[in-house]
Design a protein that fits this description.
By secondary structure, this protein is of the alpha+beta class. Helices cover about 45% and strands about 15% of the residues. It is built from eight helices and five strands. It has a three-stranded antiparallel sheet. The longest helix has 22 residues, at about 1-25. The radius of gyration is 27 Å and the shape is elongated.
Length: about 190
């Protein structure tokens, strides 16, 4: 019987140790004035996934209707990995290329939005949102990565030039319209 209790306490010790180590891997932030659960999760692009909300509540021992305390430290459903300078896939031990691209875009977005002081390649801290690993399918990640790449390709749509008949004619006169700015204030007039 005593051996049974030893196994139980050993299992409990391992569980507590593992849980505390796992919990220390979450990104920690301090609540600011006006922050609520939804506000913080939206700021870090996490609110769209119910598993992020549930994880945030669980790791911070909160209920859905709880208010956050100003300047208190909270853990976000973002695991922080030590980036190994090789690849995202080897850092997180997952060979899914689309997942790696998704995580890279997430980290770059957080840096662009000023939520990360440094790029993950500089500070060697890779942020991996929990939903990317546990809540969305690889098809959704692939679709998300494909949409982002298509958006990047079409950034110069405003550079489109259209040929018009007026370009073939000589202008009757040139008038000045300062409202268009210095580069475009001289406007050709083709018709009366």
């Amino acid at each position: 019987m005593a051996g049974h209790y030893k196994k139980y306490f050993l299992l409990l010790f391992i569980l507590i140790t593992t849980t505390s180590l796992y919990a220390s891997e979450f990104l920690k932030i301090q609540a600011k004035k006006g922050d609520g659960i939804t506000v913080i999760l939206n700021r870090y692009n996490l609110a769209a996934f119910p598993c992020n909300v549930d994880t945030f509540l669980k790791i911070n021992s909160l209920e859905r209707n709880d208010q956050l305390q100003l300047a208190k430290t909270y853990r976000l459903p973002i695991s922080v990995y030590d980036y190994n300078d090789k690849s995202i896939r080897s850092t997180i031990d997952n060979n899914d290329y689309d997942l790696a691209v998704y995580i890279q875009h997430y980290n770059e977005l957080m840096h662009e939005n000023g939520l990360r002081e440094y790029d993950y390649r500089s500070d060697k801290q890779l942020w991996v949102p929990i939903h990317a690993l546990h809540c969305i399918s690889s098809e959704e990640i692939k679709k998300s990565s494909t949409v982002e790449e298509e958006e990047e390709v079409d950034v110069n749509l405003s550079d489109h030039k259209e040929h018009t008949e007026q370009e073939d004619k000589e202008a009757l006169r040139i008038e000045t319209f300062p409202i268009f700015g210095a580069d475009y204030e001289k406007t050709p007039i083709y018709t009366e």
